[in-house]
Design goal:
The chain has 412 residues and is an alpha/beta fold. 43% of the residues lie in helices and 13% in strands. It is built from 16 helices and twelve strands. The longest helix is centred in the middle third of the chain and has 31 residues. It starts with a strand and ends in a 14-residue tail after the last helix.
Amino acid sequence: MNARRFLLLQGVCSPFFMRLADRLQAEGHGVFKVNFNAGDRAYWGLRPAAAFRRELAALPEFIDALFTRHGITDQIVFGDWRPVHEPALRLARGRGIRNHVFEEGYFRPHWVTLEREGANAHSRLPRDAAWFRRAGAGLPDPTPGAAFAAPFWKRAAHDVAYHLAGLGNPLFFPRYRTHAPVRADREYLAYLRRFARVRARREADRARVAALAQGKAPFFLLPLQLDADAQIRLHSGYRDMRGVIDHVLESFARAAPPQARLVVKNHPLDNGVRDYARVVAAAAARRGLAGRVDYLESGDLDSLLRHARGTVTVNSTVGVTALAARCPTLALGDPIYRIAGLAADQPLDAFWRAPEGPDPELFRCFRNAVIHLTQVRGGFYSREGIELAVENSVRPLTADHPLLESLPCKPS
């Protein structure tokens, strides 16, 4: 294995990039980083790095100089959509430098995504059922692997620490502009309010899920995504989740059987800035759906998916969970599972009346291929998860060719 020289840009709000850099250096590879704000700096320590303090328009020239000065062969980012990453990724491609993109896992919570060049909407995975049947047929089912805890409080603690360090941005990184649509202080206050709402509604939500599961009325599930998620803001065709709610409820009122119900479940990490209970109630009232739409702040997702007549999503990873549960799933966006035979290939109005279910064998092939080619066992936030993710990331990061090109049936 030849030694490589890695340039790291922004990572997740945790020590993951620090630990990964230490491991790559221990393996004999060169590592350098660009820090864009004080949080990046705090989570990098005294390791070699350059600070980017200029306007975003100057970033390509800045990065290009680092490529040359340090002989960079590989670039690592978390999220291919961030404004500080997009120009650097394009520049690297033009110079023959390999891009490695980390993201939250397609199969959560014990996997993270690592792909060459792009993830999610930019993934190089084909959208071809026949290819997945060939690629996944000979791959073994994934084993559970080492178990590790991933408590939410650790993720929250790292996020707070990162943004507390960001209080130094006006002094040390005055031109930095966050990609997040909501300021951290406002988000934290809103989340505290939502946390209280979730606790107050937990028993009622649990009872409602049980009633839906045991009831005779068919119901469909609409799991909400985060407004701040790039998969909504940049890759969905919707401005925000209110647009999704309006679109889905309008179709449901027009085309769903009169006895059917719609269950709207909030995202567990929603920050509470928007009161979705009111948004959903108002949208239902406008369309004459009062009494047919249930809103949940919490609840057992697995139980809902086992009993739902179908699931509608934009591009959430809940779609993968729904397919695994053999629940008919319609994707309004273009996620990696929007493949004929997996996600329903029909208009939304038709889905309410006769939802097309997934092919279980195709899903098995899809799951095995996606995990083998793009998923790394581990996590970003707990010590055990980070150790696993670092250990399992080294091979794909340093391999001469991506796993996608190692299969007999390479994508066209």
